[in-house]
Design brief:
Strand 15 and strand 16 form a beta hairpin. A six-stranded antiparallel β-barrel has the order 11-12-13-17-16-15. Strands 4-5-6-9-8-7 form a six-stranded antiparallel β-barrel. It has three helices and 17 strands. The protein has two domains: 133 residues, Thrombin, subunit H, CATH 2.40.10; 109 residues, Beta Barrel (Thrombin, subunit H). The longest helix is centred in the last third of the chain and has 12 residues. By secondary structure, the protein is mostly beta strands. Helix content is 8%, strand content 37%.
């Protein structure tokens, strides 16, 4: 099976990256640099995620902590999604800030993206990937963005336990809205945050998951897409909405539609809290 990262970058050349020898057949982060005009940036080991295919517009009041992440690379501006977990800290995917060993020259996050009068942008002072991030395994594909100034937006609570198999979760993002299985379909980037519902399934259902740092979700008709990388995976734990995952990648055909890979927040919780200074 192949899988693709979900970072978005406008494609100038070609959004498909050949598999590297010794790796599974996936599109790699090089895609970030090879596509810079309208489409997608990918994580190191999975297909790119667009802005939620077959989703619906999210209620802005419920997602005041969600941000659109813009990353300046030499080839152009890449797009991801992120979640505010502290007044000056956003969590996103590591592959968004590490592309073939390169880092963006500048990163900004935008709150209330697409909402006239409410939208505003804050610069990122420092971007830190998980210390054990391994793009070849899509391992620990999570990063923290430390803002240049604190904001007064609400934050999303972090889950301390994984969502059980069979649980319903919500994914949201600012990526493309087309079918991720149709490479010829244009990006059509979302103008507002889009959300959809997926179901957690056994990790073995996603061939590219190789450890407890990730979990697998499924839907027969909806999926994350390019530009949704780093976006929230939300689970209602005893009635409380919590961030249980960060969108990483999508299994490509011949996988059954649609299998998404997400980095586990509970697995990374100790590192997140220590790095962000959370209790």
């Amino acid at each position: 099976m192949r899988n693709g990262n979900l970072t978005q970058i406008p494609p100038r050349i070609n959004d498909t990256i050949p598999a590297h020898p010794g790796h599974r057949r996936r599109r790699f982060v090089t895609q970030l640099l090879s596509a810079i005009i309208t489409a997608a940036l990918t994580a190191a080991t999975a297909t790119p995620a667009f802005a939620v295919f077959n989703g619906s517009r999210a209620d802005s009041d419920d997602y005041a902590w969600a941000v659109r992440v813009q990353l300046a690379y030499p080839e152009g501006i890449a797009s991801c999604t992120g979640s505010l977990i502290k007044e000056d800290t956003v969590v996103t995917a590591a592959h968004c800030i590490r592309n073939n060993g390169r880092s963006p020259s500048a990163i900004d996050v935008t709150f209330h993206y697409g909402q006239k009068g409410d939208q505003y942008t804050v610069g990122v002072a420092t971007a830190v990937p998980s210390p054990h991030y391994d793009p070849a395994l899509i391992k620990d594909d999570m990063a923290l963005l430390f803002l240049q100034s604190a904001v007064s937006e609400p934050t999303i609570e972090l889950a301390s336990t994984p969502a059980p198999v069979g649980a319903g979760v919500t994914v949201a993002g600012y990526g493309c809205t087309g079918d991720p299985f149709n490479a010829a379909e244009p990006c059509n980037a979302a103008r507002r945050l889009i959300e959809t519902e997926l179901t957690t399934v056994p990790a073995g259902a996603c061939p590219d998951i190789s450890g407890p740092w990730q979990f697998c979700t499924y839907s027969p008709y909806t999926s994350a897409n390019r530009g949704d990388s780093g976006g929230p995976v939300i689970w209602s734990d005893h009635g409380e909405q919590k961030l249980v995952g960060v969108t990483n990648a999508l299994e490509l055909p011949p996988a059954p539609a649609y299998l998404n890979l997400s980095a586990s927040v509970p697995y990374e919780l100790d590192w997140i809290k220590a790095a962000a200074g959370l209790r």
